[in-house]
Structures are given as C-alpha cells and as structure tokens.
C-alpha cells in the first residue's frame, strides 16, 4: 500500500462479517500513514457482505465516488 497511489473505494456493511470493520480501520491507518489521500471508505447501513436489498444504495455510493474522484477532478483541472 505504501507505493500504491491509485484511488481506492473501500465499501463495507455495518452488519458485515466479523472482523471486516476492524480490517477497514486497519486499512485506514495504513493509508493515512502512507499518506494516500486517494483512499476512501464508505459504510452501507443495514448491509452485510453481499448487500442484498441494498443494491440501489451500493450503486449510488459507487457512482458518487466515481464522479467525485474522476469527473469533478477533470473539470477542476
């Protein structure tokens, strides 16, 4: 992760498998220490690891991140 400087979207559910939120927090720490400002995590409330029934929220989250990460940046440059 220290040399990886690509945008990263880390998505997880608040009802995900045991250890997922801990792993996400660990990745946040690693990204912060590596000064990777292109790392973003998003928690989907009510979701488990497969997001059944929450597909619209998942799609909206990914679309919003893609727009903010790639489209907005291009317009501001």
Question: What does this protein look like?
Answer:
A two-stranded parallel ribbon has the order 1-2. It has helices at residues 20-33, 55-76; strands spanning 8-13, 39-44. The longest helix is centred in the last third of the chain and has 22 residues, at 55-76. It is α+β, with helices and mostly antiparallel strands and 77 residues long.
- Could you describe the largest sheet, including whether it forms a barrel? 2 strands, parallel
Portion of residues in beta strands equals 15-25%
H/E element order: EHEH
Q: What value does the average pLDDT take?
A: 91
Low-pLDDT residue intervals, each spanning 5 or more residues = none
C-alpha termini separation: 26 Å
Overall shape? flat
**How many strand units?**
2
Into which percent range does the helicity of residues fall?
40-55%
Count of helix runs: 2
